[in-house]
Amino acid sequence: MNEETRCIKQAIQGDDHAFGILVDQYQKPVFSLCYRMLGNAKDAEDAAQESFIRAYRHLKKYDQTRSFATWLLSIASHYCIDRMRKRRLATVSMESIPAEVVADRNAPNPEKELRVNEQEALIQYLLDDLKPTDRAAVVLRYWYEYSEEEIAETLDLTVSAVKSRLYRSRRSLADAWLSAEKNTITERRHHESPAF
Amino acid sequence: MSHQPFEDWLFSGETLESQQEQSLQDHLNQCEQCQAISIALNQVDDVFLNSPSPEPALGFTQRWFERLTIAREHQQIKRTWTIILALFSAATMITIAITLLNLNTLNWAYQLSQFIASFSLFAGKINQLWRFMLSIYDVFPLILPIFIVLGMGLVSLTIVLFITWISTLIKIYKPVEEGV
Asked: pTM for the full model?
């Protein structure tokens, strides 16, 4: 019996400390998923914490023949999808990126910090147009390298539904990228035009 | 120019056979629209796959334990309220059920006639009493002040008894101070 299985069995018996070990082990993938889904650290922290609480509460329902990580990410995905449906996320406009992202001058490498912030804003901009379930499928595909079968298992969808959602999402992502590129070119032309 | 099946191949993101790959490359060399889509998708892939993985702030597990404690307290309160509401609902349901059972066995017409008859009798008695008082007043007008005095005395006595009852209750339920 490995460490994870032992912790799960102890946690089912009500051992908080054993589940704490699992929280420690899986905090990064769960938080990362919530962050990619919700777009900010505050909501991601809240969603990740709540996902672990729900997982602990329903641990008896966990089928131990399945992957624990997939089960946990399934709970987090569904929680984030519900949350996204309940509220409309504030969208990040491409035009506002340079003005909004300000590097912390006290950071060890402000240029790198600025670049990371810009990249994060760009990722959120691209993901914002996607429907919650499509977004979850994209996140699991790109950042967790899940197969279509694994995504289907995590999101309770059929494999053909996952394929169709990924197809639609990639189309939307390409459109968003091209539109952002077009806006940037227009912006540059506007700045280069002579002042009257 | 037809963009199919090349567009489908691009958006599906599936691995293509070598012949399909060659066919797609030939199309991309000719079609600017599909070329733009292909470049955009490659750049999206590049941005997504090269982004750093976001991590939670330090002390995540500790914060989770604190949240677990709060969640348990909330669950306990919720459970208590659920029990109270369940008991209240059960009592209400039983009361309604008993009332409905009694109502089913009630003869409405008979009960209404009984009520009207009793009310008429009561109204008749009041009327008689009123006439008797008027006749006393007509015969003995001097007796009226005595009635007023007696009435006031009765009201005063009732007030005194009520105050005494209240003060007794206060003395009984007042907590005893320690050391006394």
From this structure: 0.68
